[in-house]
């Protein structure tokens, strides 16, 4: 999943600090939602580059996952979230949010 690799790479840049400065780093991101749009333990479905994605807030931590179960293409939107994972509502497969 190229999107996941890109996100991990950007997180690595943030954690290390990027010599290009915060403005250059901001240019690498696309705003998809405001923090206030996702209440604690809430979620928001979005589309990024024609790919369905799901933003999930657990307490004050935010996660983004592709909103598709790899088993049969079922959206994960209505799946339960517990112990750092989202569960497919159709067949129960769990996907790590981290």
Please provide a brief summary of the model.
The protein has helices at 2-16, 22-26; strands at residues 43-48, 51-58, 61-66, 81-82, 85-87, 94-96. The protein is of the alpha+beta class and 98 residues long.
Written account of the structure:
The chain is α+β, with helices and mostly antiparallel strands and 98 residues long. The chain is 20% helix and 29% strand. It contains two helices and six strands. The chain has helices at 2-16, 22-26; strands at residues 43-48, 51-58, 61-66, 81-82, 85-87, 94-96. The strands form two sheets. Strands 1-2-3 form a three-stranded antiparallel sheet, with no helix packed on it. The radius of gyration is 14 Å and the shape is globular. 9% of the residues are buried.
Question: What's the β-strand tally?
Answer: 6
Mean pLDDT: 80
The biggest beta sheet reads: 3 strands, antiparallel
User: What fraction of the residues are assigned to beta strands by DSSP?
Assistant: 25-35%
N to C succession of SSEs? HHEEEEEE
Helix content: 10-25%
Shape call: globular
Based on the model shown, name its key terms.
98 residues; alpha+beta; 3-stranded antiparallel beta sheet; 6 strands; 29% strand
């Amino acid at each position: 999943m190229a999107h996941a690799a890109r996100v991990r790479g950007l997180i690595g840049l943030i954690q290390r600090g990027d010599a290009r400065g915060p403005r250059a780093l901001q240019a690498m991101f696309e705003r998809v939602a405001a923090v206030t749009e996702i209440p604690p333990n809430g979620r928001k479905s979005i589309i990024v580059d024609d790919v369905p994605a799901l933003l999930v807030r657990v307490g004050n931590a935010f996660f983004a996952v592709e909103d598709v179960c790899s088993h049969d293409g079922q959206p994960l939107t209505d799946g339960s979230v517990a112990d750092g994972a989202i569960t497919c509502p159709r067949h129960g497969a769990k996907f790590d949010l981290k």
